[in-house]
Write a structure and sequence with these properties.
The complex is a heterodimer of chains A (141) and B (92).
Chain A: H1 3-15, E1 25-27, E2 40-50, E3 60-74, H2 78-94, E4 105-117, E5 121-136
Parallel strand pairs in A: 1-2
Antiparallel strand pairs in A: 2-3, 3-5, 4-5
Chain B: E1 15-20, E2 23-35, E3 42-51, E4 63-66, E5 69-78, E6 83-89
Antiparallel strand pairs in B: 1-2, 1-4, 2-3, 3-6, 4-5, 5-6
Classes of the chains: A alpha+beta (141), B mainly beta (92).
Chain lengths: 141, 92
């Protein structure tokens, strides 16, 4: 398993330690979640890029991996609930920004909260993070 | 006198009783499945078609009981022809 995969698997495993999400953290959730499945976390690998690090050894590449974390909840107080979940998620990531030594650092970029009010009040947040990690060139997986 | 609008609320067809403030009103209930606009969640959009005259005193967040489920009124939209669409939600 490469570093990119290790980082994402570590993220999934550790987000499941948040009480409300012990069995509801998914990647590549290709269908739309049903409201009965909430609360839920869906993580997405948004892509990797070379950040053009100049090193003495050109066989290494510094990578920036963009990851979005979508968290959804329902109920009258779902806005406040989602805000709390954002705190829980960032706190969990902050416990080890190296993802068990696979990354050099992780940066919180931003988050956005959106609301819907249909059968239930549904609130969702997308948290964007960037994970910086080094690999040998052309060994990104 | 039976008004034209009354003919649409036949209890032997699609109309049923709903309760607001302890009073029964006739309404046609619709709960179509949808994907929410902003969060892409599969949910439903419950709404009622009612007589505009009946809903004049209804207000935002009034409790309305439909099929033994408590909903709250979120939007009242008269159409100008004697009907009104009432958007409801299970969350206050």
């Amino acid at each position: 398993m490469g570093k990119r995969e290790s980082i994402l698997q570590y993220l999934i495993t550790h987000l499941k330690t948040i009480t409300s999400f012990s069995s509801s953290v998914y990647e590549a959730f290709v269908h739309k979640p049903n409201e009965q499945q909430l609360p839920i976390i869906i993580i997405t690998d948004e892509g990797n890029s070379n950040v053009n690090e100049t090193t003495s050894n050109s066989t290494y590449t510094m990578n920036k991996l963009k990851v979005s974390i979508n968290v959804l909840a329902k109920g009258s107080d779902s806005v406040a609930t989602v805000r709390n979940y954002i705190g829980d998620i960032l706190s969990t990531i902050g416990n080890d920004v190296t993802f068990a030594g696979n990354a050099i650092n992780t940066i919180y970029i931003d988050d956005e909260i959106k609301y819907d009010w249909d059968n239930d009040k549904i609130s969702g947040a997308t948290i964007n993070i960037e994970v910086y990690y080094r690999t040998t060139s052309f060994a990104i997986n | 006198m039976i008004r034209a609008v009354d003919e649409f609320f036949n209890l032997h067809d699609f109309a049923e009783y709903v309760k607001v403030g302890g009073v029964d009103y006739v309404a046609i209930f619709d709960d179509e499945s949808i994907i929410s606009d902003n969060n892409d969640v599969v949910t439903s959009k419950p709404q009622l078609i009612m007589k505009a005259d009946d809903v004049e005193e209804f207000a935002y967040n009034d409790e309305i009981i439909v099929r033994d489920t408590v909903y709250y009124i979120k939007q009242i939209m008269p159409d100008g022809y004697g009907f009104a669409t009432i958007i409801i939600s299970k969350d206050m």
